[in-house]
Amino acid sequence: MAAFLKFASKTISSDGQLKSLLFQGSSPLFTKTRQFWNAHLLGTNLLSGCNSLTLSPFLLGTIQKRNITLLTTFKVVDNSALGKSVKKNRKPYLIGFYRKRKTADPGDVIRVAVAGKTNKAVVIGTRKTKHHTIPRYDNNCIVLVDDNLAPLGTRIKAPIPTILRKRQEKLSKVLALATRFI
């Protein structure tokens, strides 16, 4: 078993891909390494005979992409006075959610700290997306809103993903200001 773990650790590169999958050998170590990698992808036990050795996301890297969690920084994409007062060294950051799940997706309402004040914001775009049909942005983008979900600014500088049109009744005031959709 020690030889297998040594072989498996050599075949898994730093970015999490198997180097040994490039050659089509039929060695038993190659077969065990492939089983090890499949177990890593599925999140199950690494070895069928060993119940104590299980996959940890910290062991080989995370499997699920996380969008936005606490203390994530954002770029304000509207022309509100509060958004313009943001300094480069003190970007807005996430301090709370308005739902049970502790991640945010495009279209979610979150609580952010901007220039020493707390405010509601709507997530417009994220750097990491859960699905390939949702566009990726260079920065995590937000639009600052008040308690009635009306935008604080009069113009939105970034394009809005069309997936936000599904939340038309909730975000109608934000979508009315948008000039570009992607």
UniProtKB/TrEMBL annotation:
It is found in: Mitochondrion. GO terms for molecular function: structural constituent of ribosome. One of its GO terms (cellular component) is mitochondrion. Keywords: Mitochondrion, Ribonucleoprotein, Ribosomal protein, Transit peptide. InterPro entries: Ribosomal_uL14, Ribosomal_uL14_sf. GO terms for biological process: translation. The keyword Mitochondrion applies. The keyword Ribonucleoprotein applies. Belongs to the universal ribosomal protein uL14 family. This is Large ribosomal subunit protein uL14m.
